[in-house]
Design a protein that fits this description.
About 35% of the residues lie in helices and about 10% in strands. The chain has about 300 residues and is of the alpha/beta class. It has one domain: NAD(P)-binding Rossmann-like Domain (Rossmann fold).
Length: about 300
């Protein structure tokens, strides 16, 4: 499905990340893969890159730095000359933009969440446009999303940023379709990633998800999301664009859990999920940085995004 395809995968932190699962699956399907990392988290990405079926190169990328965007385009042009697919798994919101203080979040924090989590999809795609538009069989851009059609507890300005991400994807799809570039998002259910640890209320969300989704949902298995991302970056999705594909066990279609499933569901999610926040799982990896000491820009290119 991806034989000979050249893919850039952002957002890999460790082996639990959705981006890592996507890179691994893409290699299994025949793709060439390059990863990106930034700042202190780049070493984590490099360790993860060595654990792939075939060790992958890691390029420096801060999506909020125009110079980094120019450099990565130049480096990929030297290596490949064209780019067949891109996974945007990047998101960040400062601590004061999450956790229930929506009314008190300052403008600069909301702007940073928007810039890193939504505008960056446009910034990175446009920076790589010279490579994407020369892909022989068309290119697929995929972003990780978390359903922005409703308000989530504690998600706050990241939820607003995700709504912006969905709009950015639609407008990119509109403007890039004539160049045979497709832009789609995956709205995933909660996955237990490093980024999930930075989201208040994640454990509660995971418990509700397990009790509600018609299909069994495993918060420790990003494989279904990775498969969907690979599909959307492949020629099999050649006429799909401006789509938000829900890979969430069907949760998005259910109003509330049935009484029998609620009764049978475990009252407490696994202790390993007791992080804070529902947001980290939708674009499942790049949410709020789990390292509070990391700079905003460092977090901006290191995560996976819910």
């Amino acid at each position: 499905m991806l034989a000979g395809r050249r893919l850039l995968i952002t957002g890999v932190l460790n082996r639990d990340s959705i981006a890592f699962a996507t890179a691994r699956r893409a290699q299994e399907l025949g793709a060439e893969v390059i990863l990106t990392g930034f700042g202190r988290t780049k070493r984590m990405t490099e360790r993860s890159a060595r654990q792939l079926p075939r060790s992958a190169e890691v390029l420096e990328l801060d999506v909020n730095n125009p110079e980094d965007l120019r450099r990565i385009c130049a480096e990929l042009k030297l290596r490949w000359g064209a780019l067949d697919g891109l996974l945007h798994a990047i998101a960040y919101a400062p601590p004061d933009a999450l956790g229930g203080g929506f009314l008190d979040t300052p403008l600069q924090s909301a702007v940073l969440a928007y810039q890193t989590s939504a505008f960056s999809l446009k910034a990175l795609t446009v920076a790589l446009l010279p490579l994407l538009e020369t892909a022989p069989a068309g290119a697929g851009v995929v972003g990780l999303d978390f359903d922005a059609g409703v308000a989530w507890p504690s998600y706050d300005w990241m939820g607003v940023a995700k709504a912006a991400l969905e709009a950015v994807a639609r407008y990119l799809a509109r403007d890039l379709g004539a160049r045979d570039i497709r832009v789609n998002l995956i709205s995933a259910g909660p996955i237990e990633t490093l980024a999930a640890g930075g989201i208040p209320g994640f454990s509660e969300l995971a418990g509700v998800w397990s009790a509600t989704a018609p299909l069994a949902w495993d918060t420790q298995d990003p494989g279904a999301v990775a498969d969907a991302a690979c599909f959307l970056m492949s020629p099999l999705a050649r006429k799909i664009t401006a789509e938000i594909l829900h890979v969430d066990g069907g949760f998005h279609a259910i109003g509330c859990p049935s009484a029998d499933r609620t009764a049978s569901a475990s009252p407490d999610p696994p202790a390993s999920l007791a992080s804070p926040d529902p947001a980290a799982s939708s674009d499942p990896e790049t949410l709020a940085s789990s390292d509070p000491a990391a700079s905003a820009t460092a977090a901006s290119s290191a995560s996976e995004a819910p």
